Amino acid sequence: AAARYALVCALGLGLAFAVAFAWGLDFESVMSVAPGGGGTWPRWSSGPRMLVGIGSASIASQFVFAFEIVRARLPGLLPSLLMTEESFMGRAFGPAWGIAGLATLGLGAAALLRVARCALRAPAQSAPDPAADGAKTVLHLTLLYLALYTAVILRFNPAATEFWVQAVPFLGLALLAALRASGRMAAARPALLMLALASIAHNGIVGMLPLKFRSADLNAVKAAPVLERATEGDLVLTGDNPKFFRYLRYYSPARVLDLYGVSWGRMDAVEREILDHPGRVYAFDDLGDPPAAVRSRLPEPSERAEAIGLRLRDRFERLAVTRAGEALVRKEEGGGGGNVQRSTLNAQRSTGGEAGANVERRSGGSGQ
Prior knowledge:
This protein has 368 residues and is α/β, with parallel strands linked by helices. It has 16 helices and 5 strands. A 5-stranded mixed β-sheet has the order 2-1-3-5-4. Strand 1 (235-238), helix 11 and strand 2 form a beta-alpha-beta unit. The protein is elongated and about 85 Å long.
């Protein structure tokens, strides 16, 4: 009965992944994501990228960016991975954060080694365990699921943490099932408790707690000068990564234009629209200079974003400087027929109306 159950589950899992696999061919070609995706077989870089994805999904790993050597070398080893947020947070908290992460990670590693030692060397319990056969079935099905899931993710985007998060519970289930099936659960229980406490300390204190500090949030710091000033009649340009575009679109009352979406055929019209926009137009120092990681992942859209950004760059001037770079604003003489309306908007701002307060309230949350 257990064998038939395992066979039925395996066929069901296989069918589900086959459907997802076939659907993903078209989906990935539309989304144009990382190398190794886009309907192509995994490349040599899939292995290191997979390690990054699994590591980030199972343990809080951003603390390593507290060390300068990591910030300097890791982006060069994995050029298609965007690590600017992690690097910014690492600079904000400094080496103390990295040392705390290494300490809690060391406790977790010691606990995991203890669990492995119990699983391999501890004597099995003498009394037969009636749940052992069921645990073996669970173990086999879990390993099958993880193998199929890994094959699918390797074809798409092996560095995507959000994909691997779904596999973490099954890794834990496989560990518990293996201990129960071998009759060594009782011997490993103290080590499992230590592992759970170390995981809470590492992922909770080192991983999640720093996300509460907006001063270490790259998106919040970079967007702050614009969010403090922009109103509904304004326009915000961005040539940064998609996450920053979504951040601006969520928190800013102004319209946000993603320069990666501007086609070659519409470039002249969009440029004219930006220069003639009646409200203020804001941008950032990524105007005409897309991040290197985005260039690697999206070369053709990045080329378009760079082209229109360079055409517009001289029409902007510095608005503010933050630890995350520069915020820009369109020069007053850069506009066309919208100067009168722009002056009206400036007068409204000087009255301190509700729009500014609304921006402050909406930008008060965390973008993480």
